[in-house]
Amino acid sequence: MAKINLRPWREELRAEKQQQFVAMLLGAVVIAAGLGFLWKTNLDNRIDYQESRNAYIENATKELDSQIKEIEDLRRKRDELISRMQVIQDLQGKRPVIVRVFDEMVRTLPDGLFYTDLKKEAEKISITGMAESNSRISSLMRQFDQSEWFANPNLTNVSAADERRAGYSAFNLSVNQKAPETEGEEEK
């Protein structure tokens, strides 16, 4: 006899395959969600790590900026101190020079002539004075020319003196100061 199966095996097979499909679909969704979670966690960890590195670099940069500012301040102070020391050394080096210049001015001063005003600007000395005659002024200029401390005397004005000093001539003269070649040897 022929066996006839009256059970709806096709529907059962289809329902079973549908259940397997749904289970596989749910499994794939769970696996995809797990992989997505792992990917997001990894990405968040990388972002946090990079942010911590950025924060470290920013802190190091701020520290270096403060150190650079401190170094610049120290360099500025050092330069100021060096310039002050240079000024002091220049003043100490020139201290005996001014004494020698005044000594030489007295030595070049001829009789019958006197100074009323002296002004020094850099290496130029402006002299105002009175002389008994113009020949005394000429003598002063010659002595300035022969001096080892002065050069280029320039007479700018000669005029008659006021009534109090009748017979005198007022004069304005400028002369350049020079350092003699033997200055360094004399100080040693």
| Beta-strand percent range | 15-25%
- Main sheet: strands, sense, barrel: 4 strands, antiparallel
Helix content: 55-70%
User: Radius of gyration over alpha carbons?
Assistant: 51 Å
Please give the alpha-carbon distance between the first and last residues. 146 Å
Assign the CATH class of the domain at 54-180.
Answer: Alpha Beta
User: How many extended strands?
Assistant: 4
Mean pLDDT: 86
Sequence of secondary-structure elements: HEEHEEH
GO biological process, one term: type IV pilus assembly
Pfam families: PilN (PF05137)
Protein name: Pilus assembly protein PilN
Keywords: Coiled coil, Membrane, Transmembrane, Transmembrane helix
Verbal overview:
The protein has helices at residues 9-108, 134-146, 183-187, and strands spanning 113-121, 124-131, 150-160, 169-177. The longest helix has 100 residues, at 9-108. The protein has a domain at 54-180: General secretion pathway protein M, EpsM (Gyrase A, domain 2, 2-Layer Sandwich), CATH 3.30.1360. The chain is rod-shaped and about 175 Å long. It is α+β, with helices and mostly antiparallel strands. Strands 1-2-4-3 form a four-stranded antiparallel sheet, with helices on one face. It is 63% helix and 20% strand. It comes from Marinobacter nanhaiticus D15-8W. The chain crosses the membrane at residues 21-39.
Characterize this entry briefly.
With 188 residues, this protein is of the alpha+beta class. It has helices at residues 9-108, 134-146, 183-187, and strands at 113-121, 124-131, 150-160, 169-177. It has a 4-stranded antiparallel sheet, with helices on one face.
